[in-house]
């Protein structure tokens, strides 16, 4: 046997032998603290329902409640390299849950809302978690706005007649002080009137500098619109959203 082939066989044999000593390690479950559940959509009762008001009028809004929480694997720390030649074969990880609420607004063609309650950890990358009790809950509000064009606009090598832009806002701390994040700010408003309705103790999350995503279409004739900010209230979730170009969505519970 030639030397290069012999070395390859020896390396493979050593790797296979050492693999038996390396196992994925489950570091435990990241439990919800439930500190922010009051900002999730409430289950409507027989005497109270959600309504959404947009340029389409006052419409019935329904949130789809998760029948079962999704289970996530949260990579943590560094890979365990013990006896491994493949650094992706052996992981340290936590498990966690997330609750996802999607919305249906009868007759509305522009706005959509998805609310997600999760731990402040990313299932798609490694997380430096030193103490699992310090991993906070967050509420993620993804608000979409469907741009509908009167005529096709260029998009890459083709054309499109509609495009839904999405912006995500994360409530990670119900603080009364202004929080200045990387892309958006969060401020607490003791009282505010939006959509003709006065609300107390509202959180306003808004983009510091409105921007287009790299994949979003550019059109001088029909420039894209997207959600610039949202107002959040306990017991309801989102009560108002507004776009960069002046479109509004107001939500009430009646």
From TrEMBL:
Any idea which UniProt keywords this protein has?
Signal
Q: Which residues form the signal peptide?
A: 1-18
Protein origin, superkingdom: Bacteria
Q: Is the keyword Signal assigned to this protein? A: yes
Under which name does UniProt file this protein? DUF4249 domain-containing protein
What organism is listed for this UniProt entry? Answer: Pontibacter arcticus
């Amino acid at each position: 046997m030639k030397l290069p082939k012999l070395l390859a066989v020896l390396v493979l044999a050593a790797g296979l032998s050492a693999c038996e000593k390396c196992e994925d390690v489950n570091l435990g479950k990241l439990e919800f603290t439930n500190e922010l559940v009051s900002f999730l959509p409430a289950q409507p009762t027989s005497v109270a329902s959600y309504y959404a008001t947009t340029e389409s009028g006052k419409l019935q809004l329904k949130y789809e409640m998760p029948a079962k929480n999704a289970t996530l694997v949260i990579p943590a720390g560094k890979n365990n390299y013990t006896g491994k030649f493949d650094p992706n074969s052996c992981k340290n990880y936590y498990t966690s849950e997330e609750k996802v609420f999607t919305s249906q607004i009868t007759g509305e063609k522009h706005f959509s809302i998805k609310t997600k309650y999760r731990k402040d950890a990313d299932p798609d990358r490694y997380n430096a978690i030193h103490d699992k009790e310090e991993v906070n809950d967050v509420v993620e509000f993804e608000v979409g706005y469907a741009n509908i064009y009167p005529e096709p606009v260029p998009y890459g090598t083709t054309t499109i007649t509609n495009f839904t832009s999405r912006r995500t806002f994360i409530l990670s701390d119900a603080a009364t002080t202004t929080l200045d994040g990387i892309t958006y700010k969060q401020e607490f408003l003791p009282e505010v009137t939006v959509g003709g309705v006065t609300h107390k103790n509202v959180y306003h999350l808004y983009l510091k500098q409105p921007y287009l995503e790299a994949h979003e279409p550019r059109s001088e004739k029909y420039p894209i619109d997207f959600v610039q900010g949202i107002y959040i209230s306990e017991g309801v979730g989102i009560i108002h959203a507004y776009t960069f170009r002046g479109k509004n969505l107001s939500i009430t519970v009646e």
